[in-house]
Amino acid sequence: MTKELSVVMPCLNEAETIVVCIQKALTFFKANGIDGEVIIADNGSTDGSQETAISLGATVISIPQKGYGNALKGGFENANGKYIIMGDADDSYDFSALSPFIEKLREGNDMVIGNRFKGEIRKGAMPFLHKYLGNPVLSFLGRLFFKSSIGDFHCGLRGFTKEAFIKMELTTSGMEFASEMIVKANLLNLKIAEVPTVLYPDGRSRKPHLKTWSDGWRHLRFLLLYSPQWLFFMPGLFMMVVGFVFSVALILNPITISGVTFDVHTLLYSSSLFVIGFQFVVFYGFTKVFAVTQKLLPKSNRYNALFKFINLEKGLILGFLLAIIGISLSIYGLSLWSDEHYGTLETRTTLRIIIPAVTIIIIGVQIVLFSFFFSILGLKDEKN
């Protein structure tokens, strides 16, 4: 039976606070004439939370797979509402004050995120490190990596349409689930709104399930893995530019700075830096293709352009051309050695030829191999 709103709460031994959370949600339904339901996504409670929730009229869904993300996904899948609002069952959010969320959803937004920093964080509601380091830094990185305008990436009170949930195809199982929702919604160009939200002190007497450092790392790891551009492409491009500039300068002449001379030994390192940067950039391409083919990331215009620009034939031509150039330089270096009757050479002169030659051969061979691998990764995508 379809309803307008489903309020979904993950639950793991929340007997102390689940009553007030459910009562507030039911009060909100009644006060605003909303046809709604409360879904308790239970993740293995042993304190009687399930029986308490059922007695209050909530629907309890048992989720055997452990994890915050698993519990919520199970709850969402069983929700009958056109709209879904999620929030923790620890009384840190007021389920009787959901009007801003439902209004924004009714206006046509696909997702509505609470912002505790624009609203209010009551005294004792958020640990110092979370308030001034963890949340601001991770939210900043989320905005930077994904060009998002969301100010509070980790607010646990948020709403979205059931259709948006289906589109996002969420996969993570732990606390990073909160970041995945925003990232996927942003990548899919869903319409997202923010509303000020009040965060209250946790109503439970025990410690919260959230672990500051391990869960913080899971959020950061997720943001990095879902943004190969910042994890691989940008660092790789920087290394390639720096390596190329220094290599060209050192091929022409030694460089002396403040009495320190940089010569062919430095050229070897700068050439290596260029190769390493190239591998970072190529790995960005691998990651992007794999993530899209496995439906971890949605397709984008940049992804489509990647396969139009890079294909097996172009890669083979470029790779073999570079290999030929590198081999030609090597032959030239060999001729210089021949001129000296294969005796002792002036290394500062010959290495300025040999190091670029070897570097170009390595890049050419890698381009050939990478082109084949790109094509293999793209086979599944070409069939679709």
Task: Summarize the SSE layout with pairings.
Blueprint: E1 3-11, H1 18-32, E2 36-42, H2 49-55, E3 59-62, H3 68-77, E4 81-86, H4 99-106, E5 111-121, H5 128-146, E6 158-161, H6 162-168, H7 177-187, E7 192-199, H8 212-225, H9 228-252, E8 255-257, E9 260-262, H10 264-293, H11 301-309, H12 312-339, H13 347-383
Parallel strand pairs: 1-2, 1-4, 2-3, 5-7
Antiparallel strand pairs: 4-6, 5-6, 8-9
Helix pairs in contact: 5-8, 9-10, 10-13, 12-13
The main β sheet shows up as: 7 strands, mixed
- What is the CATH H-level superfamily of the largest domain? Spore Coat Polysaccharide Biosynthesis Protein SpsA, Chain A
Could you tell me how far the N terminus lies from the C terminus, measured between alpha carbons in angstroms? 35 Å
Overall residue-averaged pLDDT value: 87
Radius of gyration: 28 Å
Task: Report on this structure.
This protein is an alpha/beta fold and 384 residues long. It folds into two domains: 223 residues, Spore Coat Polysaccharide Biosynthesis Protein SpsA, Chain A (Alpha-Beta Complex), CATH 3.90.550.10; 156 residues, no CATH class. It has a seven-stranded mixed β-sheet. Strands 8-9 form a two-stranded antiparallel sheet. Helix 5 runs parallel beside helix 8. The relative contact order is 0.09. The model has no long low-confidence stretch (mean pLDDT 87).
